[in-house]
Automatic annotation (TrEMBL), chain A:
Coiled coil: none
GO molecular function: ATP binding; creatine kinase activity
Protein name per UniProt: creatine kinase
Family: Belongs to the ATP:guanido phosphotransferase family.
The species this protein was found in: Umbra pygmaea
CDD domains named among the record's database cross-references: creatine_kinase_like
PANTHER family (alphabetical): ARGININE OR CREATINE KINASE (PTHR11547), CREATINE KINASE (PTHR11547:SF62)
TrEMBL record, chain B:
Name of this chain's protein: creatine kinase
Matches recorded under Pfam families: ATP-gua_Ptrans, ATP-gua_PtransN
Keyword Chaperone: no
Record CDD domains: creatine_kinase_like
Organism: Umbra pygmaea
EC number assigned by the record: 2.7.3.2
Domain Phosphagen kinase N-terminal: 48-135
Length: 381, 418
């Protein structure tokens, strides 16, 4: 390092005991892992862009817990965070991603033809299907840490790449800071608009700085393929449509994502990826595929069944409210998606959703008829 | 908590001094080193220098705060490579103003200081903001401190049928420590420990107790809420954006005396906020207690070798540039339903150098004709002068209210500009 980090070095004047956070009331992955010894070991380090241990953990210190989910409590500020602070992040990754070891290799598979079925989920139950992931552009720091200059560069590169898409992907970019009222209204009605984060998890990590500068939404004309620029990750790529044709949603997802990646590569910008962590994103929970494939599905009976949670666990699925991660379900309609991100491929994860949701809809139908479902309870996947 | 080592870079040599909680800290006889002499750089800020100034310059086109009025692209370019000795940078100074374009009731500053040196290193930005905010206060002006309550005339006879309560508050920063937007947990805890030790040695009618936010029992919390003493984690985006809520509630707490008339907030928006208050209109007594308590606290700090941030140009140095000088806001909750609807109300306030707020504080509206009326100035006037303006001004406003109640005119009472 030719340079130090003035502020971090200043803090080294204080003993570890004085600087170590009070985590006694905390329940998140970071608090489970960060002992005083690890804090002492890592506190004088920084990544090449100047991201420090306190930067990594601030969100976890400020947010002791969450009512619905076990939060991670850490963010990366750049690609190197995962290397420089591996003593903290490896155990968290292992805990969060089902025992994933520092020596494990992650498999990427974005070949939609490898998905079996998925085009016949009953639209009487499955109201909509969606697949999302994130991508980070190599060489730039991540949303908790990036400067306005970097964020704007990410926006420029992304919009240039997206504007080259054609055919079913031809579309338009709407920057948040130039949106007209009419455009804003339309995007809200389409359920596309993302707003300045209100979640204290994101705010504490510094991701809302300079809002709405260099943030925006791109979508294709058919409104089935959508990209968020500079929200929680450099890019969030979303394929969605009403009904239960997850096969088509995933096809469009893979094709579009591959086209975007090709365009970036042509301009000498790759995505952050390595064979151990897969795609590198801001939150350690999104490593690997960064993929969440899910449906909004009506399961009023199954969701009140005593074995609902157990079934979800065995199917490697997770439930959320229809408003997203921080919400509760309404009227028996749940957002059901894959629980895993790292250690299995995109195809494998979407397969789990397709097969799992198909099974749950069958169970719902049985329960409607007053029949039992015990014989259908699956083994642990 | 154990002693911590303080390394001060004084005169180019490194001194290691062990500092117990209230043993001698390095006396800052000389100005701090400017950033060019610092042995370390700031990695993150240096990385940003790879982008041109125009790529990094914030979009302030929709903004209306003091920072946005002053920060031109040229000024941004000149200051962006600088940092204070503790590593506070231009982007740190302005982040709250970038993230908060405006406020419905007040013209916000849009800037915070991260340490005492911020006001020096970034003076090219802060001096014009200070001038704009504090009525033309020039970089060469000197500020007068007067905490002698005997110099206040009157103030013990504001009509309690109208003046419901009286309050004086100020802030203090402990020299040698970074301010709330920037301080680490270690620093914040050190500030807490030093403050509590000083407050615990107060006696007589100032004798009291400290309630750390993170150790508070439910019963204590309820009592403090009922007393209107409890401060909670900031929700104002102005404070959140500047990083003042980090690590909440670590190192934060409330101290108050047994009679609940003298109160100190530790590590909220400033290191210390000192408040004297009581029901009714005896501002003289409130100010008496304020000055006595504050002076005692300052003496205790000095005995232990620490002092408050103060200089003869800016007076007391606080986190927000709007609180420089005296840091003093003296005010009353006063019932003026008729006066407040009079077309000349705003004009009268302005001439009296007073400001109105809702009874919930700076971000609220008035309820039922009851207003919080306080001094508008902070810098360039002494404490006594500011409280005098409140005492005289509120007395006049109450007289006007009484006249309006009787259906009489108040035109002959309208004051000249103070």
């Amino acid at each position: 390092m030719p340079f130090g980090n003035t502020h971090n070095n200043f803090k080294l004047n204080f003993d570890v005991d004085l600087e170590y956070p009070d985590l006694t009331k905390h329940n998140n992955h970071m608090a489970k892992v960060l002992t005083k010894d690890i804090y002492a070991k890592l506190r004088d380090k920084q990544t090449p862009s100047g991201f420090t241990l306190d930067d990594i953990i601030q969100t976890g210190v400020d947010n002791p817990g969450h009512p619905f989910i076990m939060t991670v409590g850490c963010v990366a500020g750049d690609e190197e965070s995962y290397e420089v602070f591996k003593d903290l992040l490896d155990p968290i990754i292992s805990d969060r991603h089902g025992g994933y070891k520092p020596t494990d290799k992650h498999k990427t598979d974005l070949n939609f033809e490898n998905l079996k079925g998925g085009d016949d989920l009953d639209p009487n139950y499955v109201l909509s299907s969606r697949v999302r992931t994130g991508r980070s552009i190599k060489g730039y720091t991540l949303p908790p840490h990036n400067s306005r200059g970097e964020r704007r560069a990410v926006e420029r590169l992304s919009v240039e790449a997206l504007n080259t898409l054609d055919g079913e992907f031809k579309g338009k970019y709407y920057p948040l800071n130039k949106m007209t009222d009419a455009e804003q209204e339309q995007l809200i009605n389409d359920h596309f608009l993302f707003d300045k984060p209100v979640s204290p998890l994101l705010l504490a990590a510094g991701m809302a700085r300079d809002w709405p500068d260099a943030r925006g939404i791109w979508h294709n004309e058919a409104k089935s393929f959508l990209v968020w620029v500079n929200e929680e990750d450099h890019l969030r790529v979303i394929s969605m449509e009403k009904g239960g044709n997850m096969k088509e949603v995933f096809r469009r997802f893979c094709v579009g994502l591959n086209r975007i990646e090709e365009t970036f590569k042509k301009h000498n910008h790759g995505f952050m990826w390595n064979e151990h962590l897969g795609y590198v994103l801001t939150c350690p929970s999104n490593l690997g595929t960064g993929l969440r494939g899910g449906v909004h599905v009506k399961l009023p009976k199954l969701s009140t069944h005593a074995k609902f949670e157990e079934i979800l666990t065995r199917l490697r699925l997770q439930k959320r409210g229809t408003g997203g991660v921080d919400t509760a379900s309404v009227g028996g309609v749940f957002d059901i998606s894959n629980a895993d991100r790292l250690g299995s491929s995109e195809v494998e994860q979407v397969q789990l959703v397709v097969d799992g949701v198909k099974l749950m809809v069958e169970m719902e139908k049985k329960l409607e008829k007053g029949e039992a479902i015990d014989s259908m309870i699956p083994a642990q996947k | 908590m154990n002693a911590f080592k303080w390394r001060a870079n004084i005169g180019g040599a490194l001194h290691d001094q062990k500092i117990g909680i209230l043993l001698s800290s390095p006396r800052i006889d000389q100005p701090r080193q400017q950033e060019s002499a610092m042995p370390f750089g700031n990695t993150h800020n240096t990385l940003k220098m790879k982008f041109s100034a125009s790529e990094e310059y914030p979009d302030l086109s929709k903004h209306n705060n003091h920072m946005a009025k002053v920060l031109t692209p040229a000024l941004y370019e000149r200051l962006r490579s600088k940092e204070t000795p503790s590593g506070f940078t231009l982007d740190d100074v302005i982040q709250t103003g970038v993230d908060n374009p405006g406020h419905p009731y007040i013209m916000t500053v849009g800037i915070v200081a991260g340490d005492e040196e911020t006001y020096e290193v970034f003076k090219e930005l802060l001096d014009p903001v200070i001038e704009d905010r504090h009525g033309g206060y020039k970089p060469t002006d000197k500020h007068k401190t007067d905490l002698n309550p005997a110099n206040l005339k009157g103030g013990d006879d504001l009509d309690p049928k109208y003046v419901l309560s009286s309050r004086v508050r100020t802030g203090r920063s402990i020299r040698g420590f970074c301010l709330p937007p920037h301080c680490s947990r270690g620093e914040r805890r050190a500030v807490e420990k030093m403050s509590v030790e000083a407050l615990d040695s107060l006696s007589g009618d100032l004798k009291g107790k400290y309630y750390a936010l993170k150790n508070m029992t439910d019963a204590e919390q309820q009592q403090l809420i009922d007393d209107h003493f409890l401060f909670d984690k900031p929700v104002s985006p102005l404070l959140l954006a500047s990083g003042m809520a980090r690590d909440w509630p670590d190192g934060r707490g409330i101290w108050h005396n047994d009679t609940k008339t003298f109160l100190v907030w530790v590590n909220e928006e400033d290191h210390l906020r000192v408040i004297s208050m009581q029901n009714g209109g005896n501002m003289k007594e409130v100010f008496n207690r304020f000055c006595t308590g504050l002076t005692k606290i300052e003496t205790l700090f000095k005995e232990k070798g620490t002092e408050f941030m103060w200089n003869e140009h800016l007076g007391y140095v606080l986190t927000c540039p709007s609180n420089l000088g005296t840091g003093l806001r003296a005010g009353v909750h006063v019932k003026i339903p008729n006066m407040s609807k009079h077309p000349k109300f705003e004009e009268v306030l302005k001439r009296l150098r007073l400001q109105k707020r809702g009874t919930g504080g700076v971000d609220t509206a008035a309820v039922g004709g009851t207003f919080d009326i306080s001094n508008a100035d902070r810098l360039g006037f002494s404490e006594v002068e500011l409280v005098q303006m409140v005492v005289d001004g509120v007395k006049l406003l109450v007289e006007m209210e009484k006249k309006l109640e009787k259906g009489q005119g108040i035109d002959d009472l309208i004051p000249a500009q103070k």
